Amino acid sequence: MTLRVAIGGFGAIGKVVAQHVDRGIDGLTLAAISARDQARAETAMAGFRRPVPVVPLASLWEHADLIVECAPAALLRELAEPALAHGRRVMVLSCGALLDNFDLVEVARRHGGRVLVPTGALLGLDAVAAAAEGSISTVRMVTRKPPSGLAGAPYIEENAISVSGLSEAKRVFAGTAREAARGFPANVNVAAALALAGIGPDRTTIEIWADPTVTRNIHRIEVEADAARFLLQIENVPSTENPRTGRLTPLSVIAALKKLVSPLAVGT
User: Fold this and answer.
1) Are residues 26 and 129 in the same domain?
2) pTM of the model
3) Are residues 19 and 95 in the same domain?
């Protein structure tokens, strides 16, 4: 069977995912997209092998079996609730917003839908999820980003934190993953994914640094568990279209989609 895929959001992530599916992945077909600028998206669609309709977020479920959410975090519910209520699968990239809309999981349970959270720009979620089957005492993440990747975040704005003209690294946040997801909705969805894989958003701690000496988005994870102690670090190349996200994120989505339809699935 072929899995019909719709993409909610046609920016730095959604466009790359849509292009890969359109080029051809066995078992997947692109069925529809949604975009803030419909005319621009339709123009871009002209270059696809099989152009698909550009439809509203809330009606993506009518065209597909699985919807990949690549939209701004504030639009998560508009896309996900009707899809899950009609038994669809929704792959959520705005997993920080999922923490404040966790009743969507119950919607999925009642109607036979499913919420999927890809690894995204992180690493080691398999190990964290495995360790969580035992006992984890601490999960800590330290994120370093070029200042431009943090500019405009709600927490930065609300607390009048300046990240321009820095000559050395500046810690701009320390707190829980839940607090980080609310304060940096476009920056640290990785913290929410880590929390969901491990010990939850209120026990997972995170520091965020604006660092003018780095050119990549760096995430370092430290986990202490009864089964293992591990340190993980990844340095992601920022997207040229949107420095708040990394180039690895859409590739992670594509890998997750392939895993759903492949006869061989590697990893937990």
Assistant:
1) no
2) 0.93
3) yes
Q: What is the CATH number of the domain that holds 130?
A: 3.30.360.10
For the annotated catalytic residues, the residue numbers are 219
| Total length of the chain | 268
Distance CA 31, CA 51 (A): 9
In this structure, the answer to whether residues 111 and 144 fall within a common structural domain is no
Whether residues 165 and 64 fall in one domain: no
28 — alpha (psi -120 to 50), left (phi > 0) or beta?
A: beta
CA 90 distance to own-chain centroid: 12
Strand order in the sheet with 217-225: 170-176, 204-210, 136-145, 217-225, 229-236
Q: Residue 157 corresponds to which tokens in the numbers above? A: 């704005």
CA 63/CA 145 separation, integer angstroms = 37
5-21 mean pLDDT: 95
Are residues 38 and 88 both part of a single domain? Answer: yes
pLDDT in tens, 75-85: 999 999 999 99
